[in-house]
Design brief:
ATP binding; mainly alpha; 2 helices; Succinate--CoA ligase (ADP-forming)
Length: 42
Amino acid sequence: MRLLEYQAKELFKEFGIRVPESIASKDIEQGRLDAKNWAIHL
């Protein structure tokens, strides 16, 4: 069985398993900022 990340997240949510929201960054600098902001929300 091949399961991609987004499919696993959907499956986990279906069974009540909490998963972190995804972030898509457009470049390295934005990725750094997104990572810092994401860590605050954990």
